[in-house]
Write a structure and sequence with these properties.
Elements: E1 2-9, H1 13-27, E2 32-36, H2 41-47, H3 53-61, E3 64-69, H4 84-94, E4 99-105, H5 118-121, E5 126-132, E6 142-146, E7 152-156, H6 162-177, E8 182-187, H7 193-206, E9 213-218, H8 219-228, E10 235-238, H9 240-253, E11 261-265, E12 271-275, H10 292-304, H11 309-324, E13 327-328, E14 338-339, H12 342-351
Parallel strand pairs: 1-2, 1-3, 3-12, 5-10, 8-9, 8-10, 13-14
Antiparallel strand pairs: 4-5, 4-11, 6-7, 11-12
Nicotinamide-adenine-dinucleotide binds next to helix 4.
Length: about 350
Amino acid sequence: MKKVAVIHGDGIGPEVIGATLEVLKKVAPGKFEFESVAMGGNAIDKYGVPLPDESLKICQNADATLLGAVGGPKWDNQPPELRPEKGLLGIRSGLKVFANIRPAKIFAPLASACPLRKDIAEKGIDFIIVRELTGGIYFGKHEAFTTPEGERAARDVMEYTEHEIRRIAHVAFRMAMKRRKIVTSIDKANILTVSRLWREVVEDVAKEYPEVKLNHLYVDNASMQLIRIPSEFDVIVTENTFGDILSDEASQIVGSIGMIPSASLGDDNRGLYEPIHGSAPDIAGQDKANPIGTILAGAMMLRYSFDMMKEADAIENAVDDVLKAGLRTPDIFTEGTKLITGSGMRDEIISRL
Ligand code: NAD
């Protein structure tokens, strides 16, 4: 029996997680023990903090953690320490997951949803972004202060140690070995000292993977190349902030933000699995949320944490079948396809398992 900690979260979180738990129960009956834990805005309301110690403890003791999404306008004016997003940073560092894996793959039936020119999309899009998740500016010192002249000012510190770069680089090269054997490391080494260290360490790690071709791109150039020649990317490795921004760009290249899962991994098999989207307060409670991103995150959990490849394939194939049948939630709806609700999407996927 695998123990899975489940964070339903806020907004559409409970809707997409609910759908995913149903899918997991259908694909592997009796294999999981799910334990719900409070995090985010709902935890602030109930316990006064975004990530209660007890919640983190349950996740740390579980075999994997499944997360919907947290946050919403209700908590936007909270002080920084008491914002739902603080819970996200807390759980990532508490679970010591330092590598965020985001696949960007175009589902053939959704090719028309790709906003890029047809000749570009037709070359195929299938890359993975490996984003460093527990370092960099998001975890550096944040400070608001007043200058000696009395002007308001602020600073955020970007910092990486060699071992943080080395371990994320290894994740990327190992992934590349199972794929097309190309790693693109993205930095801003023409300006940032941190990026120069990043580049040196990545080049050093590359020596251990002689079969893998390593390229470097500056982040501004990378953001252009991702939409100009996406087919040429295989595995992208980059630091926390650049990865945050580029992976949202990638999500639009392959269709809706509602379609993309992510896995956050540490040194062992225990991971944190979630869709890339937020709590979407604009559509919460309306049965419009696309559950596919979270359902595919569930499939990634089976693959990376539990070695249940057959079941993971079954989920991915069921999603593909539903899309081939022309069924679409509002976010991926185009003319000529059939509009269904979020719960309708859940049922259609389950019926194909
Ligand atoms: P968002 O991802 O919640 O929504 C952006 C847009 O995408 C919205 O129009 C939304 O309706 C749509 N969308 C998102 N997921 C969808 C889905 N599954 N199906 C259909 N449409 C979907 O981003 P946002 O609006 O910037 O943030 C809303 C809240 O979520 C904020 O409080 C933010 O801090 C939080 N947030 C949380 C996470 C997380 O929990 N990991 C990530 C990002 C944002």
